[in-house]
Amino acid sequence: MGEDAPPGRGGSGGAEVGMGAGWQSAGSLLDFLNVAAVVVDTGGRIVFWSPQATETFGHTAEEALGQYAARLLLGEEDRHRALELFAGVMETGQTWAGVFPVRRRDGTTRSVEFRNMRLLDDLGDVYALGIAVDQSTLHRVEERLALSEQLVSQAPVGFAMLDTDLRYRLVNGALARINGVPAAEHIGRRPRDIHPHKEVELVEAALRQVLTTGEPLVDQYVVSRTRADPDHDHAWSISYYRVQGPGGRVVGVASSVVDVTERHLVAAEAERARRRLTLIADASARVGTTLGVEQTARELVDVAVPDLADMAAVDILDTVLSSRSPAPRTEGPELFRALAVAPATPDGVTGAADPVGEIASYGPDRLITQCVRTGRPVLVAHCDEQDLLRIARDPQAAATLARAGAHSYIAVPLIARDEILGAFDLLRVANPEPFDADDVLLARELAGRAAIAIANARWHQNVRTAAETLQRSLLPPAPPQRPGLKIASLYQPAQAANEVGGDWYDVIPLADDKTALVIGDVMGNGIDAAATMGQLCSAARAYATLDLPPDEILRHLDQLTRGLEHYIATCLYAVYDPRTGHCRIANAGHLPPVITRPGHRPELLPVPSGAPLGVGGVTFHTVTIPLHPGDQILLYTDGLVETRDDSIDDRLATLLDTWNSTDPLLDSTCSRLVDAMRRPGDPDDVALLLAETHPWHAPHAGRP
């Protein structure tokens, strides 16, 4: 064949399988059809016989060469017709094609399709070439080709065939409709030339992977937009297969595309519903954990960011926080106080939010004002410049939101017991999806739960404030300095999330320069406990004027307490006489006082504990304790020492270790004790009464 390039050499790249360097396997379809070639001379004798002819007719070349073709291959009934056709081909040179039943060497008959043509060699000799294919094999190939063509052209699934350079060679109608590009315009172009979406790089990478490895990629999930529908996302299930001929030559890669958008939307909606339920469940657990208004607002915005919004704020009407009844209005500004703000990131839109705790005035055209006045949500799915001016507190803040990319807004009212408390505001910045009606429903659900918690917290704070005001009004404004005594006191209510209790103390002047020191604790809290405390405090003052022994005072208070429904109280009553230096003490279920003497360690006074007031039928006892100048005696309520985790004995020991009586200022000693003993979040009140003895001098008699 000389140095000329052999037929079939070359190609378009990619994997090749050939017969040596540069050779490709050719005629794979002919091999599959098993095409037989037979050449006869003008006399009808066989002069050439191909190997495929042996497979088709059953005769070897040695058996066939030199034989008359009609006698060897045909029955007597078909020979005459075959000879006429043979003569016509040899005389006219026209090609003839048709089907003859062929008699094989084994005696069986098979229909074979022939194509006969005249040949002429360089010497002028004439021959006839017969090409033969088993008709059943040919029909099977035709059926498969027809089926393949119908499947590709009529299937609703998008189908494409690409060569090894990833250029389209075949595209069916379904894929042309999916891509929005006619099938003819695909041919010769790559996917990146057809698809505008960025995911096309991943698609081409997958195609190259399949070409290289031969491993198919099935059901690859892609969400993108096409030219057929550039405004909406579609979901596609794409599969890739490498295509090879029977000889192993890589022809290219095929892809099938199925539109699964409906399934994608259903799954996306199910996922959104799952996230909404999760968010609601999270809010149920995290919002309203305390009775603090500010804490509840912070919990609400923390739940919303970042799962629902990139920025959230709770703005309460100032009239609500001040417990004033809002006057109905339809014009003029509304005053809001920002209770909590939560951005998804600490930068960006943070500076555009109202500072927490400050009052902001918003006019009637502002969206938050419209929200609280109508009691209806406000949804701006796509914010423009004018919308941001009606959302932000000022034009500078609106410009900040615009630069950050704020594009969607919701405001829902906070409504509890038919009262509008304020608004819950949401913004999306980084999240590209706009708010929709489902987001409004979710925001209303969260706001409704938080509004109830805020209303309860506000009610609790109002009741607590009233009880604390009543309790403080019943306590002495400042302990009077009595003869022979220096006195300090301290009252600290429970944390804001708890109601105040009934802790109280009193310093009562008595005749002959004596002083009564009283401390007590009504079991309970709130206004009722404060009122009961006030009754006991007033009664103790009244009984003290009778100059009765401390145990008798407690007996009278016990009788009074038994007449008060559902209440008992502890009380410690002490009377100090500066003339004798004696302190007489009686106890009704209260914690023992602590005494410290100069140069000695603090210790608990051995006072019988007795039973609380209101139990009844219990005898109280008075003990007498000698005091010397410089001695300090501490009366306190259980809020100073009791905790949920420690035993009372351990806490009393801690109190003795903590008390340092070297501080010359009794008020500082009280504050230091409370700071050292109390823990953040302690739920009980605490009251202290600290007295230090001094030398007493009898007053000079007045001149007549």
Name the assembly state: single chain
Regions with pLDDT < 50 over 5+ consecutive residues?
Answer: 1-27
The mean pLDDT is: 82
Distance between the termini: 159 Å
Q: How would the global form be characterised? A: rod-shaped
Q: How many individual β-strands?
A: 26
- State the major sheet: 6 strands, antiparallel
Query: Largest sheet, order of strands side by side?
Result: 13-12-11-16-15-14
The whole-angstrom Rg is: 51 Å
Helicity range of the residues? 25-40%
What percent of residues are in strands? 25-35%
Number of distinct helices: 21
Content-based structural category: alpha+beta
Descriptive notes:
The chain is an alpha+beta fold. It contains 21 helices and 26 strands. The strands form 5 sheets. Strands 13-12-11-16-15-14 form a 6-stranded antiparallel β-sheet, with helices on both faces. It has a 5-stranded antiparallel β-sheet with strand order 2-1-5-4-3. A 5-stranded antiparallel β-sheet has the order 7-6-10-9-8, with helices on both faces. Strand 9 (229-244) and strand 10 form a beta hairpin. Helix 12 runs antiparallel to helix 17 (437-474). The protein is rod-shaped, with a radius of gyration of 51 Å. Residues 1-27 have low confidence and may be disordered.
Compose a concise summary of this entry.
By secondary structure, the protein is α+β, with helices and mostly antiparallel strands.
